[in-house]
Each structure stands twice: as C-alpha cells, then as structure tokens.
Amino acid sequence: MGRPKTQTDRRLTLVAAAESMIAKRGLAGVTLRDVANEAGMSSSALLYYYPGLKDLLDDVQRKAVERFCTLRAASVAEIADPRLRLKTMIESGLPTDADDQLCRLLLELGAYSRSDASYAARHITLFERQVSIYVGILEAGAATGIFKLQAASETIARSLVVLEDGLGLHLVNVVPAVDQASALAILTSYAELATGCSLR
C-alpha cells in the first residue's frame, strides 16, 4: 500500500488493512502487528492513530455498519414496485458467497456484542436500520393493496432480518449448511407467506 498523506487517509488505510486481515484470519486471529504489516507501517506508527486493537476495531465496525446500511438503502431507493423492492432488499441482505468480505466482517464483529456494550449498541443500530428499511417497504406495499400483511409490519421486518442473520452465518462457514440459492428461497418463501404476495 502507498503511504497516505493525511491522518484521515492513514486511519482509512488502517481500517482497510484490519478488514482485510479479519477476512483472511477471522477476528480472533488478528493482532495490531498484523494490521500494521498489512498497512505497510510499523506497530508504533499504528499506535499513534489507534491506542489499541479495540479502538481500531470500533472504527472498523462503525464504518462497516454505515456502509452496509447505506448500500442496502440505496439498492431499493429508486424502485417503485413494492414487490421488486422487497425482492431486492432480501437479495441484498445475504452474503454473495463465503468470501463476501463486508458480510463476513459484520458477522465476525457481531460476536463481540456478547461481551462489549459499545459493540452491542452498534449491532443494535445495524439491526434497527435494516428493520426500518423493511418496514417502509412493507407498509408501502400494504397501502397500495399489493401486500396483505399477515402480522404487524415491524414483526415481519424483524423476522426477515433475523432470518438473514442466521442464514448469513451458515453461508460464510467453512462448510456451509445451505447455499446462497437455498437461503434466498427460504427468505423469499417467508416473505411471500408474510405478505400474501408472490415475489417470483
């Protein structure tokens, strides 16, 4: 990696290096030295920008959550048909494959939520922002009569995000329990039952 010139650039370089190392080794296998090497700087130089690994991972998670939610919102923003919006939203919530770096990153960092309040708070934000996008799609479809919701929009939305998370974990395992097509079919089937509308 080339040497960035500003503090912001250096932080972005370190965040990218940390993301790369997490994707390669998993969160438990990453050290500050690994990240510094990946970024092309010394460990002492890294400590100038982040006093410890947790501080760096906080920034990694914050940026990953924002990127994921922004990408999902953008994927449906210009779609008028509620059916196509819901279908597109479902497709955007699953890892494309075991090497999907952003999804792997969020799933790895989610494990810290069990023991660290700041990680848990950001993980809740990630969850609620996705739920909010789904609620908007579901309520728009119900308002036009295209969807006949079988439960409250928030209940359906939360169920979809929970299903995505569970299936996503299986998809990025070394030996996946389901493949991407099967996971997508499971989510789509649930969405069709919950909305009383075919999405195929």
From TrEMBL:
Transcription regulation among keywords: yes
DNA-binding region: 31-50
Domain HTH tetR-type: 8-68
Classification via SUPFAM superfamilies: Homeodomain-like (SSF46689), Tetracyclin repressor-like, C-terminal domain (SSF48498)
Pfam family, one: TetR_C_6
The keyword Repressor is annotated on this UniProt entry: yes
Tree of life domain: Bacteria
Protein's UniProt name: TetR/AcrR family transcriptional regulator
Keywords from the named record: DNA-binding, Repressor, Transcription, Transcription regulation
